[in-house]
Amino acid sequence: MRFREYSKSSSKSCVEYNYNDDKQLRWSTTKQDVTATTSVAITAQIKQLGRDLFLPIGYPQSVNEGYLKYQYYDSLQGLCSYLRGVVSTSAVLSATGVGDAQATAMSAAMTWAVRDGLGMIGGLIFSYICSPHFDANVKEFRLLADVLNDIGMTIDMALPILLSQTSWMTSPLTTIYPAISKYLPSSYLILTSTSTLCKVACGMAAGATKGTITDHFAICGNRADCQAKESTQETLVSLVGMCMGVWMAGFIHRLEKNQNNNTTCSISGELDDTCSNNANTIRMLDAQVISWGIFISLTLLHVWANYIGMQCLRLRTLNQQRAKIALQPLIEECGQSVRSICNDKDGSSSRKKATNPLLLLLSPNDVNESLWKSICSMLYQGNIHLGISLKNLIRMTNSRQNNLIQGNWHNEKYMIFTSGKGKVSKAHKIIVLLRVGADDNDELKAFVHAHIVNWCLQRDGRTAELSQILSR
After folding, report:
1. DSSP at 407
2. Which of 44, 180, 201, 211 is nearest to 119 (CA)?
3. pLDDT (tens digit per residue) in 198-231
4. Are residue 406 and residue 451 in the same domain, yes or no?
5. Which of 261, 302, 432, 450 is the most exposed place for a label (fewest CB within 10 A)?
6. Is 352 a member of any domain?
7. Bridge-partner residues for 431, per DSSP?
């Protein structure tokens, strides 16, 4: 074993220690040029400073797998959002009246206040509707939050164009009923309120899911440390975005200035060779076209980074979509057993012994669901309804067409109903009623039973035989 120790004095001496197999420690002192070694040490210190500043203590052992990859894509999407905000801010200010001599500060302030108030009210409604689903659909709402942010920024970016195209919406009403013109909201107020609502919903959904994602990565009781390091990462991204945004804003401003100079040359009639060349250049590099090109490119990169970041996030919990994927081998094996019993009316045939389905089940970390399908299943439940009240059961379907899947349900804390007759169709529903006192185990058991029933009905649709088999 060999160790080297370098002095900080001007002599630049080096002491080398050797611990040999004879368990004796020997050392020797030499004087040498340690410039290269010093540069390596400085580089190592800079790397260590970066790790201490931006990564949790004890990384990578103190965080869950995939932390660095997720933070990379999260920082990339944050940088895209910052730059798009710089590009869209000029459009919002222009639509507000900045640069217009007829616009007043009081009118702009009142419009912004009303816009923020309407956005807050919409945010409260969004929280009332979606807050019960934040914990179960973390990845879905995190992705949905960024999509809403994209919609809000796109409305801001297109505000001058939309205002010029929506003036016809209120002009017929004001012409026919001039008395109500003062009570109609302006197009600017409607568009900016919609944009603010999208951003408020984005902040609410992102903030609600951020804590769950932090808990997922903090595996050593270092939740506060992970939150602090994420804040430093966001600060770094904001600083980089600010520098790039200043350069981008100056670049777009120079294009707009050149375009205005070209217009002045054209109006004054000075169509010399210089102005003609400038006109050709401005046609090719129009400021709005370049702004929209930058904005669309950053938006596509933002959506891609968010999707990849959510895909690499492997949560340790299961929602309905993830549980269906994890338990699919068990559902298919049980469904095939039920089908074989239904087809074996005489009881003479014997089914081959299959592999234990429990060995094929996926752990939560191995489940990699499609986020788009998961979002669709979150918005539309399909034909399986878990935890429906009896009142909703009667309201959703015709009670005369509800078939109770009979069995020893008096020992269970749930009941399964099927609506519809004959072959299964898109209108066929499987409804699960949970009794008072049902816990997580009862809910999971009802979930598996409902999917087994759905698997069988999709292939046979024989509710009567299925009911008899499950009653055994």
Report:
1. S
2. 201
3. 999 998 998 889 888 999 899 888 889 999 999 9
4. yes
5. 261
6. yes
7. 385, 417
C-alpha–C-alpha distance, residues 78 and 234, integer Å:
8
Structure-block tokens of residue 420: 């519809």
Q: What is the pLDDT of residues 237-248, one digit of tens each?
A: 999 998 998 888
Answer yes or no: is 62 within a domain. Answer: no
429-434 and 384-386 strand pairing? parallel
The residues, ordered by sequence, that sit 6+ positions from 186 with a Cβ below 8 Å of its Cβ are 111, 170
Tokens of 58: 């004890």
Q: Which residues of 304-317 are buried (b: 16+ CB within 10 A; e: fewer)?
A: ebbbbbbbebbbee
- Together in a domain, 211 and 92: yes
User: Quick one: 243 and 392 in the same domain?
Assistant: no
Same domain, 187 and 140: yes
Q: How far apart are CA 248 and CA 245, in angstroms?
A: 5
Coil, helix or strand at residue 312: coil
Range of the domain at 380: 320-470
Whether residue 147 lies inside any domain: the answer is: yes
Residues 299, 330, single domain; the answer is no
Report pLDDT for 280. Answer: 45
Phi and psi for 13 in degrees, rounded to 5? -85, 155
Q: What is the mean pLDDT of residues 322-345?
A: 80
DSSP-assigned states of every residue in 173-189: HHHH-GGGGGGSPPHHH
As a whole number, mean pLDDT of residues 306-320 equals: 87
Could you give the number of structural domains in the chain? 3
Residues 267 and 413 in one domain: no
Length of the chain: 472
Sequence-distant (≥ 6) Cβ neighbours of residue 84 within 8 angstroms: 153, 157, 295, 298, 299, 302
Cα(233)–Cα(229) distance, rounded to whole angstroms?
6
Q: Which region among 140-154, 280-294, 311-325 has the lowest average model confidence (pLDDT)? A: 280-294
Same domain as 345, residue 382: yes
Task: For residue 59, tell me if it sits in a domain.
Answer: no
Q: What CATH number is associated with residue 289?
A: 1.20.1250
**22/135 same-domain check:** no
| Residue 369 vs residue 256, higher pLDDT | 369
Q: Quote the pTM value.
A: 0.75
Lay out the sheet containing 414-419: strands in order across. Answer: 384-386, 429-434, 414-419, 402-404
User: Quick one: DSSP state of residue 18?
Assistant: E
Work out whether the CA dihedral 303, 369, 447, 419 comes out positive or negative.
positive
